[in-house]
Amino acid sequence: MGLHRFHPTPSGRMGTLWALSSIRNAALVEFGSMGHMLYGRATLKRMGKDPDCKLYSTHINESDIAMGETNRLTRAIADIALRDQPRVIFVLPSTIPEMIGTDLSALCKELQTSYPHVRLLPFEAGGFNIELHRGVQETLLLLATTLPLDVPPTPNPTFNLIGSCTDLFQFNADTQEIVRMMEGAFGLKPLCIMTSDTSVEDIEHMGGAHINLVIRREGLSAACHLQQQFGTPLVEGRPYGMQGTYSWLEQIAQILDKPINQSFILQEQAEARPIMEIAPGFFSHQKKTVKLSIGGHADVVAGILTYACSELGLTPDLCWCDSPAMATEDLPYWQEAQWSQTITNRHQGLLMASGEVLTWAGRNNLAMQIANPSRGWQMYPYSPPYMGFRGAMNLATMWMNEVVRIL
């Protein structure tokens, strides 16, 4: 691992840990040193999520490494199964067991007969060979392929929200906005919010939903599997802006063959009108062209940028994503060396990125943060969203105030 001035890109193991840590009625045991688990738990609290999944670490010593012993893990699983009685125990390797070739899948298969009422589910993202978003993708796919049961559709239409995970900034606020809009526009309630607010039982009943909403590309493979297994249609995308959100709702209405509640739409438009009537003219009448530089998750960057440019008339400036697998010609992947040299305290225009980037650029307004890692604590449970109708109002107002502050 190279030297980093700031936090390096998290590994796939962190993506797996953060995705699983919010699942209720489950336990997670990591076969490895306790430091990683302590760091993961502390980071979760900074992100605004107290782990709902019981998190454990076996620790590890020289004998485990040199002799390839797994007695610590076997005893830990036995103790957790007896004491907590979870529906599922997730088994996660750390870096050293992954490197020496400990076969957790074979071990869990061997132990499974001893625990008929507890599902042992091993994961393989223990090393540094995959990055955060790949770990999230593999975790969502494994959950979707192993836990859902063969259940009939729910009597009243419901939906699954796939991809709401704790690694995304403002995951809780954006999820609440989608739930609010789905109920207001269609009268639909969530069956499973995968994984930021869910339980093992919710995942087991995912097949009963009438539609799957995929809000990040890492969840697409899981949704495609559910579509193949249960015939559940899917809609992929993150709704940003007034027009973008309405187009997103129209896609859902077409698939469900269900009209949008127009009284709800009229109410949302009336609430947003005072802001949306002023914002485009405010930006166009500035002495300097208002440019927006933005970096973070590729789906978040693309969605916010489209709203800013197409609906409010902002001009795109420096844009980058935080995953090499998601990089394109128009949205490159920037490592620490690239963004730290390009984004400085002399940077002009609006800037939305991680807390570290904003601090490095001398921007004290962390309200412009859209990505982790964060320099602050995101513990307030009622923060305004970025997605949906209310997110459109929040972003427009935020940008107007930032222009007044810096230009």
From TrEMBL:
Domain Nitrogenase/oxidoreductase component per the UniProt entry, residue ranges: 13-403
GO-annotated molecular function: oxidoreductase activity
InterPro entries in alphabetical order: Nase/OxRdtase_comp1, Ni-siroh_cyclase_CfbD
Pfam family of the protein (one): Oxidored_nitro
Protein name, UniProt field: Oxidoreductase/nitrogenase component 1
Organism: Pelosinus fermentans JBW45
